[in-house]
């Protein structure tokens, strides 16, 4: 099973529709490559970090080092 297939299966297990899972898997792979280049880490380490964020978010958790969103405008 390819990495993309594994990511799609994981996203589906987390509740995504098959179509959403395809998109999410592609986005995770792309962002992992970007983070690896930006931070000088391996692509695998970047992907592991992203997967932790996805799973935490799915569980309604916010990691302590995750930046807070900007406040309401008005």
Walkthrough of the structure:
With 74 residues, the chain is an all-alpha fold. The chain has one domain. The protein is 66% helix and 0% strand. It contains three helices and no strands.
Low-confidence stretches: none
**What about the largest sheet?**
none
User: What global shape is seen?
Assistant: globular
Alpha-beta content class: mainly alpha
Mean pLDDT: 91
How far apart, in Å, are the first and last alpha carbons? 49 Å
Layout of helices and strands:
Elements: H1 3-13, H2 18-39, H3 43-58
Helix pairs in contact: 1-2, 2-3
Can you describe this structure in just a few lines?
This protein has 74 residues and is an all-alpha fold. It has three helices and no strands.
Question: Could you name the key traits of this structure?
Answer:
74 residues, mainly alpha, 66% helix, 0% strand
